[in-house]
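[User] I wish I could look at a protein chain and see how it folds. I have put the entry right below:
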Amino acid sequence: MSDSNSNPRFATVASAVSNGTNSFSGEKLKVVGMIPAYNCAHLIKKAYEQVPKEYFDSIIIVDDGSTDDTLKVAQTLGVKVFTHPHSGYGGNIKYAIRKALLLGADYMIEIHGDGQYDPGNIPDAIAKIQTGQYDFLLGSRFTSLLQPLRDKMSLVRYLANLGMSFIDRLVLRIPLTEFHQGFRVYSRRLIETVGLEDTSDDHLFSFQIIAKAAFAKLRVGEIPVRCNYGDEHTSINLRRSVVYAVLTFGVLAEFLLAKLGFPSKIFRTAKAPEVPAR
């Protein structure tokens, strides 16, 4: 990254991050951090403590009906905590997004409750989304091709991600290096344009929302992120990963059919991407 003293544009963006405004419009923006959590009582306190809180107007923890002490630990951290019956990753993040929107969020950053993603990426993510050039921002572990292996990603997961992302780029026509990750910045404009209805309550939601953004011709970008595979973390097992991969190809098929004029539940005629009133 260029030094802020030698790059006036970066200096402008950095200033916007510190005072919470859009660097081009000067509009006051509200950034809410969302920590979805499920059965990670022994991890969530550390994950929360690592978050650079000065970049957020509010942080919420959303418990997906955990059966351990996740809710109890979360309630000691001094932030808003919500819980609901267990619904799966997709159901939990959608619940979190709706809660964040009710709090007036313009941008919502997904922060994993197991601390797997490096929170040091958060300032850069906020700087990039607040330029006003993106509706949806995704973290990518593959901007440096070998970095995931250095971070101890398994070879099977690494090769599967490369292959799937290659196919996703061809179909969705979004120039991302990775499509299957958990660090995201959602905008109010994204959610109110594509909606959350009829999407999966499981991990497939994470890919459906990207495909919906592509179908609506919204602006999707990425930033480099790092992921810690050495420490304990939560992750779906191999069987569920295979099921997820197969289902993403179904989403791509639906996307192509919708482009040909055969809409499905998640790919209907897109609403005009207007900036919604708060």
